[in-house]
């Protein structure tokens, strides 16, 4: 991927990456999101599908960094950031007649909603808490 990005990708090219987080440690996912931001800032057009809250949260941080620089009347630095006005986001959910596609708002102050990930995290936390409670009850 790095060789492709360095030697093949040019300004204005369209890069489509399905699940860029696949098989990457969370820290590497964050770095890859930063690299994608740099590509976007150098003129590449990028379409991404992701199921990673790490990846999405890093993209959101990069959107917020751009907004912060703008609020301070600074030019976004050479460090990665993403102009929120250059981002489109969609949520795809299964429906009875195929997939439903929902356009998501990209908020300059918070980025792209991660509500879908938060619902799953809440469900897992509640399940874990219930199991821990049941284990404690079983030991008594």
Characterization of this structure:
- The chain has 140 residues and is of the alpha+beta class.
- It has helices at residues 2-7, 26-41, 53-71, 115-139, and strands at 14-18, 45-49, 89-95, 98-104, 106-107, 111-112.
- A two-stranded parallel sheet has the order 1-2. Strands 3-4 form a two-stranded antiparallel sheet.
- Helix 2 (26-41) crosses helix 3 (53-71).
- It is elongated and about 65 Å long.
- The relative contact order is 0.11.
- The model has no long low-confidence stretch (mean pLDDT 90).
How would you sum up the major sheet? 2 strands, parallel
Low-confidence stretches: none
Strand order of the largest sheet: 1-2
Output the number of helix runs: 4
Helix amount: 40-55%
Strand content: 15-25%
Determine the N-to-C terminus distance.
Answer: 55 Å
Radius of gyration: 19 Å
**What order do the helices and strands follow?**
HEHEHEEEEH
Number of strands: 6
Q: Pairing-aware structural class of the strands and helices? A: alpha+beta
Q: pLDDT average, as an integer? A: 90
**Tell me, what's the shape?**
elongated
